Amino acid sequence: MTQPYEVHWSRGVVSLRQGGRSIARAPSTNRDAMAVARQILRQRHKGECLTENAQPRIVKVLSVRDTRVYEEMPDGTWKPIPGSGVEHQCDRCGRTHEVHAEVLLDTGKRAIVGTSCMRAESPEIIRQMLSLQRRQRRLAELQRDKARYDAARAAWLRARSIVAAMPVPEVTVTRQGEGGRWEYRCGDGYPCWSHVPPEIDDYEQRRRCAIDAWRDKKMRELGQTPFYYPPEPKCNFEKEIARITRQLAG
Ligand SMILES: [Zn+2]
């Protein structure tokens, strides 16, 4: 019969004993002694766990929440600001974590732990944690991109109403040399071309083309995409956010 394991902690070292004999030692703080002991056992006995005096085991990772504030780097990536999150004292290791994982324990209870102190867990639990963490990051990234896109679209709409309210300059028609094409131009706008003489051309259509080209130029001067082309979203934000939110809830 296998004798129960005992865990002893003293002066920064955790020792694992069996039948009064020390079988392994590792440095550890008092609070993570059990996690360290469990890790030693797992390494030595291929997955066998402490049964005596053991902390409850994690059976499922329910959610991962990064509470830190992210700031944009000059290269366009986003980095968390250390210390900007909500500190929660870990139910297992006693340290404080800013990335909170809600887990289900084998006692049926729930606990909030850190993602960093889950490294000694089984591959399946680590997989669940990483998958949730990846989705949570993707969701945060989508929300940031959507906020940026919404602001860009609002700026485009503002510029568009400014340009729409501007008095439209006169449209002039000039011929580019003898036998050349005709140039329609509204104020200082971009030119529109035609190879058909104005008297038999669809003049109204050419005139509208020149006015639109002038509006596009005014939009560009305000740092915007053309009058009829709002900034493009990277993806369908609402749909993607809804999809990941569903995955996270499932
Ligand atoms: Zn912890």
Number of domains: 3
Helical percentage:
25-40%
- Residue-averaged pLDDT: 86
Strand order in the sheet with the most strands: 1-2-3
CA radius of gyration? 33 Å
Amino-to-carboxy terminus distance: 42 Å
Structural class: alpha+beta
Estimate what percentage of residues fall within beta strands.
Answer: 25-35%
Largest beta-sheet details: 3 strands, antiparallel
The ordered H/E elements are EEEHEEEEEEEHEEEHH
The number of distinct β-strands equals 13
Shape: rod-shaped
Low-confidence stretches: 46-53
Bound molecules: zinc ion
TL;DR of this structure?
It is built from 4 helices and 13 strands. It has 250 residues and is of the alpha+beta class.
Describe the protein in words:
A hairpin with a 2-residue loop joins strand 1 and strand 2. The longest helix is centred in the middle third of the chain and has 43 residues. Helix 2 packs antiparallel against helix 4. This protein has 3 domains: 55 residues, Nucleic acid-binding protein fold; 66 residues, no CATH class; 121 residues. The protein starts with a strand and ends with a helix. The strands form 5 sheets. It has a 3-stranded antiparallel sheet, covered by helices on one side. The protein has a 3-stranded antiparallel sheet with strand order 4-9-10. It is an alpha+beta fold. The protein has 4 helices and 13 strands. It binds zinc ion. The site of zinc ion (ZN) has 8 residues, from strand 10.
Protein topology:
Layout: E1 5-10, E2 13-18, E3 21-27, H1 33-45, E4 58-66, E5 70-72, E6 78-80, E7 88-89, E8 96-97, E9 99-105, E10 110-114, H2 123-165, E11 171-175, E12 182-186, E13 192-194, H3 203-221, H4 237-249
Antiparallel strand pairs: 1-2, 2-3, 4-9, 5-6, 7-8, 9-10, 11-12, 12-13
Helix pairs in contact: 2-4
The site of zinc ion (ZN) has 8 residues, from strand 10.
